[in-house]
Design brief:
Helix content: over 70%
Number of domains: 1
Distance between the termini: 118 Å
Number of strands: 0
Shape: rod-shaped
Largest sheet: none
Structural class: mainly alpha
Length: 93
C-alpha cells in the first residue's frame, strides 16, 4: 500500500513526470484527432461517392448487356428476314 510518509523527493518527481507525460500524450492525441477529423470525413465522402459511381456502372453494365442481347436478336432474326425479302426483288430484275 502507498505510504506517503516514506516517499522521497526523487520518487515524487518521477511520479509527477510520468503522469505529466501520460496527460500530455492524451491531450496531444485528442487535439490531433480534431486536426485529422476533416481528413477522415473527406475519405468517408469519397468512398460514398465511389459507391454511388459503382452503382451507376453496374446499372450501365446491365443496360449494355441487355442491349447486346437484343442487338443479337435483331441481327440474327429480323435482319435475316429483311435480307431474304430483299433477295427475290433483286433476282426479278
Amino acid at each position: 500500500m502507498l505510504n506517503p510518509s516514506q516517499l522521497t523527493i526523487g520518487e515524487l518527481s518521477s511520479a509527477v513526470k510520468d503522469y505529466g507525460i501520460f496527460i500530455t500524450v492524451v491531450i496531444v492525441g485528442w487535439k490531433s484527432r480534431s486536426a485529422i477529423q476533416p481528413c477522415i470525413d473527406f475519405v468517408k465522402k469519397v468512398s460514398a461517392f465511389i459507391d454511388k459511381v459503382d452503382a451507376r456502372f453496374e446499372r450501365a453494365d446491365k443496360h449494355m448487356s441487355l442491349m447486346e442481347a437484343n442487338m443479337g436478336t435483331l441481327l440474327n432474326n429480323h435482319l435475316a428476314h429483311l435480307k431474304s425479302d430483299a433477295e427475290p426483288a433483286e433476282k426479278s430484275e
